[in-house]
Amino acid sequence: MATPPDEPPPAPPPPDQARTRVLEQQHPPGPPRGPRRRLPGGPWPWLAALLLVVIAGVALAYFLTRGDDDNKSEAEVSVPALVGFARAQAVSQAQRLGLRTAVKEVLADQAVGTVVAQDPQAGEQVPKGSLLVLNVSKGAAPVEVPNLVGLNEAQAGVRLSEVGLESKIARVTSTVESGQVVGQDPEAGTQVKKGSTVTVNVSKGGATTTTTTTTTTLTHLTTTVAPPPPPPPPAPARGTVPNVVGENLAEAVNDLANAGYVPQPVAVQSDKTPGTVVSQKPAAGARATAGSSVEIRFAALPS
Fold it and tell me: Which of 57, 248, 272, 300 counts the most CB atoms within 10 A of its CB?
């Protein structure tokens, strides 16, 4: 039996296929991947939610920080302006703001019970519970009554006005020359409240001296009285009151005295220059008896 001829060996695969098979043998394929999961509704709703969380965090931090500032501001108050207020009103207003108060009474020209100063000053920022000191007027300092005896009526009025006192003229019969001050009440040197009235006794003359002569005889005692005084002189003539409004006090007093009148100065509050005459009574041009009084109101010196 004849032997079949040997079959030729199979042909080698192409080079590319041989390389692929080698790589497949070295790296076997992994397990199959499942289907990819997708967010419901897509990614935008989730991004919006994340943005809201960030905004909420920023807002929370802002309000927490602002709360600290508010607490700090609430712990401080602005000091109110209380000068010029009555004592009770000032204390009440300060206490409503959470401030403690202490009242110190001081001498001042303002009305009694009025706040004239404060410490701390108005507008200062201080912690609640701080002490606010209020200076309250207990009235003006007393003044000493000057000596007026020997002055004329006008000079006495000016002197009293200079120390803040008012004058009240009382005309009395006296042997001293008419128009001269012969007494006063209160007396010189007395301490009185500023603005008080001093009664000024001004001589109007007219006093007579009675001479008594005693003659002794052997039989009886005879008393002889001096003869009666001569009849009074005729009534003084009437003249025209000069205009002194706008003059200073010294000029007005001099002009009235030269015209035969007795000036009666009265200090009044006015916006005119201190010492300037602002009105007169009787008015300028009026007919008045020589020797009569003419009231002249002048701007008082500032207190």
Answer: 300
Burial of 140 (0-12, 13-18, 19+ CB in 10 A): middle
pTM, entire model: 0.39
Cβ atoms of 254 and 209 closer than 8 Å:
no
Helical spans, DSSP H, in the chain: 15-26, 44-74, 87-96, 153-162, 249-258
297 strand-pairing partners: 266, 279
Q: Which residue has the tokens 């006008």?
A: 154
Does 3.30.10.20 match the CATH number of domain 238-303?
A: yes
pLDDT, tens digit (0-9, with 9 covering 90-100), for 127-167: 999 999 999 999 888 989 999 999 998 999 999 989 889 99
Cis peptide before 142 (omega within 30 of 0): no
pLDDT averaged over every residue in the chain: 80
All CATH 3.30.10.20 domain ranges in the chain, comma separated: 76-137, 142-226, 238-303
Question: Please, which residues have CB within 8 angstroms of residue 84's CB and are 6 or more apart in sequence?
Answer: 114, 115
The CATH architecture to which 142-226 belongs is 2-Layer Sandwich (3.30)
End-to-end Cα distance, the chain: 165
- Amino acid letter at 166? E
